[in-house]
Design brief:
- It is a single chain.
- By secondary structure, the chain is of the alpha+beta class.
- It has a single domain, classed as Zincin-like.
- Helices cover 46% and strands 21% of the residues.
- It contains three helices and three strands, in the order H-E-E-E-H-H.
- Strand 2 and strand 3 form a beta hairpin.
- Helix 1 runs parallel beside helix 2 and helix 2 crosses helix 3.
- The N and C termini lie far apart (26 Å).
Length: 87
């Protein structure tokens, strides 16, 4: 599965977890998670390449409470667990 397809799965999971998702030009860094007025928002950088957007989105999801209780494809789950161990 390519990075764009994986990113779509990650975005779906983020939305199911109640995160708002915004696509914005952010300089090519990939985006990330922030809290705005009490709402978690996942920013996806439209200027970044697909692998970078995917990696930043996975890093953001790794910080979301309850992600471990949400179904993710095994390859994405493994990457999130790897990110969590690395912190």
């Amino acid at each position: 599965m390519d990075a764009n397809a994986q990113l779509e799965r990650v975005i779906e999971a983020a939305e199911q977890l109640g995160l708002a998702v915004r696509y914005e030009p952010l300089g090519g860094d990939g985006g990330g998670l922030c809290r705005i007025r009490g709402q978690n928002v996942l920013f996806v950088d439209t200027l970044a390449d697909a692998p970078t957007r995917l990696e930043r989105s996975l890093e953001a999801l790794a910080r979301v409470p309850g992600i471990e209780d949400h179904y993710l494809r095994p390859d994405l789950r493994e990457r999130i667990e790897y990110i969590r161990r690395d912190r």
